[in-house]
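Side project, low priority. Logging it here so it doesn't get lost.
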Amino acid sequence: MKKYILGIALVLGLFQSCKQERSNVRNENVGGALGTSYSIISISSEKLDLQKDIDSVFAVINQSLSTYIPESDISRINNGDTTVVVDRMFQEVLDLSKSIHQETNGFFDPTVGSLVNAWGFGPERQISMDSLKIDSLLNYVGLNKITLDDSNHIVKDNPNIYLDFNAIAKGYAIDRLAAMLDAKGIENYLIEVGGELVAKGKNTIKDKFWIVGIDDPEMEVNRFTKILIHLNDRALASSGNYRKFRIDEKTGKKYVHTVNPKTGYTQVSNTLAVTILADNCATADAYATALMAMNIEDAFALVEVNKRLEAYIIYLDENGETKEFSTDGFKALVVK
């Protein structure tokens, strides 16, 4: 009788062990998309082939929102095609953009695209900039000049308005990847696309919450991790001027990629980098961009008031010394 009970116990033990092992299968997909690289780690009860689903998400995002694809919906709209019926993704990105545009007092503005192109940071031809040209291009800036009619056509106050969702589309793509994994019942994953992330659950193989690193913005060439944080059921996006800039071949002057939608000029500020945590990556992406264009004190004030966000900002003080600002919620996530 004892041998029988022992045998049952051994079988149960093996079954539980196999069941636990099967529930901790690591799936990893890496590749290139949206002009950058991606890495998706998911943990499931069995090995999954997610590549076709991942490729499909990137494909529909590109078709709707990529200014680098001439046949995409947004490119056709920018080129004056008024027959384009925008899809649900386009509508969601536009609605969220309008909301964040209002909350940031206009510092997040996807209609800044004509200026981004003119300064040499977009897909269109760069031009020689002066104050008169900047004033002229500012006539095409303002998200209030874009509306969506009842038939889901984009209506522009001026045909020269150029929409550029690149400061929010990558984050939105990550959110769509997360929604795809959620729909498959995957409860633990870490998605990274070009340094922006969404984490859900935990790394059940190591029985630890996901830990991610934030780069040091003062290392222009080699990447170096500034801090590590726990990322639990949140999205993270960073923006900085430390790697995205252009050098004028004639003058040697450095132009950073953040364009101030109020002035039309590339932003010159003491803000080196902004990292935002939010419930979704599109929101984090947009706010990180907006705060880079703001005066540093205004950026501090915004994240202190907006309780849906956590922030980590690296900046230079009046003496040129590097300083760090963190909200209390962000500080609580830093790995000691």
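Brief comment: The longest helix spans residues 2-22.
Revisit when time allows.
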